[in-house]
Amino acid sequence: MGWYRAVVHPALSALPPEVAHRLVMHALALPLPWERIGGAVRDPALETTLAGIRLPNPIGLAAGFDKGCERLAALGRLGFGYVVGGTVTRHPRAGNPRPRVVRSPTRLALVNAMGLPNPGAEAVARRLARSPRTSPRLVSIADEAVPDAVASHALPEPHVDGVELNASCPNVSWGRDRDTEAHLAALLRELGARRTRPLFVKLPPFRTAVEREVVLTLARIAVDGGADGLVCSNTRPVADRRLAVGRGGLAGRVLLADTVRLVGEVRASPDGVVPITACGGIFTGEDALACLRAGATTVQVYTGFVYRGPEILRELTSRLAAELRPSARTPEDR
Ligand SMILES: Cc1cc2nc3c(=O)[nH]c(=O)nc-3n(C[C@H](O)[C@H](O)[C@H](O)COP(=O)(O)O)c2cc1C
Asked: How far apart, in whole angstroms, are the C-alpha atoms of residue 285 and residue 291?
């Protein structure tokens, strides 16, 4: 067991989740040897291209960890192949009342009901303009009104390699109540005409046949609307009485089987022509490999990073490199 799991994680777990997260964000501002702490393997076999963006490895940090894009430079130095900042909205948002994040450690899970707190697109764009690029970086955006989404896209876009449209947040009222299909089509019409960088759409998960129909329709709208890639997927909506708002999005290990299935189904659908990013429940190299084998081009981690710490980067990159190195392939694979 590494130092994070032995020492740091137990100490952070004694604190409320948001306090622990703030401490980690403060630590990431320190001038520490982040490359060594992450220990990610650099290997040409890991190099990946995602919609034209060249990545040193296919492991991304998922949206929501650095909502205000404050520490993307340190996070990039840890060895992520790319980092996703945000989700950012045009105007600053305070988010939902606390408690709005809870842990379920025995299930290696988190439940999130933050409601997209962030300092707003203008502040984030200023921050991105000043911060050095240590890895490819995307920004995640979401908004209710189309003109707001256009602004939250246009302001940070010059300072990132791509934009991820969060079409799947379960924690804002407009994420649940509006006509998501019409809204996504309208957003892509406007953003598609203006964008200068790749645009990705993050889909909600599905479990039932009805949800599957809805999500595959969203995937079709996204691809028809010019999206350069799909992210499968966001958290699973659940009730949780520990949260002030009583419900949130389940994240963590329990999502893995769904993630592999979702990636496979979207890949097999007519919309599986664009690159797919797997997100949900990825903790180990085997998890990441299962997603790549199901058809994902990259994977993103959030809860795995929280429970495993920076060591997850060494674990994931070394396992993938061992698998993807040409010498590891059988003659039939080549
Ligand atoms: C506390 C928390 C906050 C999150 N905030 C966002 C967010 O702002 N935007 C977004 O697209 N996803 C957000 N997510 C979802 C993650 O990006 C990811 O899709 C989800 O947690 C599944 O991956 P995981 O099982 O590796 O955590 C958040 C998740 C958590 C646990």
From this structure: 10
Name the closest-CA residue to atom 30, ligand 1: 112
Q: Facing residues of 46 across strands?
A: none
For residue range 169-207, list pLDDT tens digits in order.
776 666 665 678 888 999 999 999 899 999 999 999 999
Whose C-alpha lies nearest to ligand 1, atom 23? 280
Backbone phi, psi, residue 2, to 5°: -80, 175
| Domain spans of the chain, in order of start | 3-324
What's the rounded mean pLDDT across residues 58-70? 98
pTM for this model (two decimals): 0.96
Is the peptide bond preceding residue 104 cis, with omega within 30 degrees of 0?
no
Our answer on whether the CB atom of 243 is closer than 6 Å to any ligand 1 atom is no
* Ligand 1 nearest atom to the CA of residue 300, by list position: 26
pLDDT category at 144 given cuts 50, 70, 90 is: confident
Ligand 1 and 312: CB distance under 6 A: no
Where does 3-324 sit in CATH, by number? 3.20.20.70
